Amino acid sequence: MSTKTQEPVIARVSDLPTSEARWVTLKKIEYVDQVGKARTWEVAMRKTRAAKAGVDAVAMGNVLVHPSRPPATLIVIQYRPPLDAYTVEWPAGLVDEGETAEEAAVREFKEETGYDCSVVSVSPVQAADPGMSNANMQLVMVEVQLPEEDGERPQQRLEDGEHIETVIVPLAEFYDRLVEYAKRPRTIVAAKLFHFAHGMNFAQTNKYGI
Amino acid sequence: MSTKTQEPVIARVSDLPTSEARWVTLKKIEYVDQVGKARTWEVAMRKTRAAKAGVDAVAMGNVLVHPSRPPATLIVIQYRPPLDAYTVEWPAGLVDEGETAEEAAVREFKEETGYDCSVVSVSPVQAADPGMSNANMQLVMVEVQLPEEDGERPQQRLEDGEHIETVIVPLAEFYDRLVEYAKRPRTIVAAKLFHFAHGMNFAQTNKYGI
């Protein structure tokens, strides 16, 4: 699916004045803590949160269901400039103004993977990285029903500049495959994806007899 | 364990010039993408990453093992100014200069919970929020062996200004309890913790017959 023709390369990293930033910003929070003491905290924020939804982003935990093949999940691999690396993630995207989490999930999943999906569940709002930012997200679990003869993989509908490789992984191999991806050069697995797969593996091995 | 005496309150939120920020910063990345096109990306970064470890933070996925009680995990609840809310997380902390992930995990776990723990496994480095920042972390799984008569909960060793409530949750109730926490006012569950518990629940219900 990828149109990759060369390895991305960083030319320059420079300080970005807060006043010039378009997508993210820095804020200083002055607050009074639990014992009445005045304190400050520095926070990074997205400038794009849609007011209505009150949530920055959705990620799509997904299961591809096929009549005869084992259940699988689709992961996306893309170059992420903040890390100068290829990340392994579930499909995700920002929630647009006026959209619900469900609508954003179905739209973004179609764009990034080409598949139509149905929503199975929507998680509570979760804090993406609570010590550093106010970024938040919802995990939307979705299902794709594949026909017996599903033929070629559907076309993505990527925006200009998006280069996203899609990989289908049987759920039974999910955790082990992520561990393998993490060993590849210039590759890093996203924490949310790894934690979900780690939780599955933890439950399946059931060392503690839960 | 909490010394909370009043609800924290934010007095003021102001733009923080990048040049004045001490803990986080903004950078502009200029890069050449896969098809040879020059692009830019805005990124938030911590200014505290220890050079040796190359990783910002550790989180401690933990199991409290008791001779006769069911296996449980300890979660921490604390006010997080970036979200103006109480977050539910696993104990976590920044890796200090010269520390390994294992050392940081044992030290931070003792500080936040009062318990001595042993390290069971260390995950690959994971990207905390790859679209927005270069922040990364490792999930260190740890175990605490409790004696039959474990008496009072041990004392935390918190730094000045830290007010961290610890709660012990049986692993069998982990996911359901997080869903309940997410319904409380001014409370948000951290994405990594929720994803781990969600993965456990996904494997345990095993809707897809993995």
TrEMBL record, chains A, B:
This is NUDIX domain-containing protein. The keyword Hydrolase applies. One of its GO terms (cellular component) is nucleus. One of its GO terms (molecular function) is ADP-ribose diphosphatase activity. Keywords: Hydrolase. It comes from Lasiosphaeria miniovina. Belongs to the Nudix hydrolase family. The keyword Transferase does not apply. It holds the Pfam family NUDIX. InterPro entries: Nudix_hydrolase (IPR020476), NUDIX_hydrolase-like_dom_sf (IPR015797), NUDIX_hydrolase_CS (IPR020084), NUDIX_hydrolase_dom (IPR000086). Residues 55-192 form the Nudix hydrolase domain. One of its GO terms (biological process) is ribose phosphate metabolic process. PANTHER family: ADP-RIBOSE DIPHOSPHATASE, UDP/ADP-SUGAR PYROPHOSPHATASE. It comes from the Eukaryota.
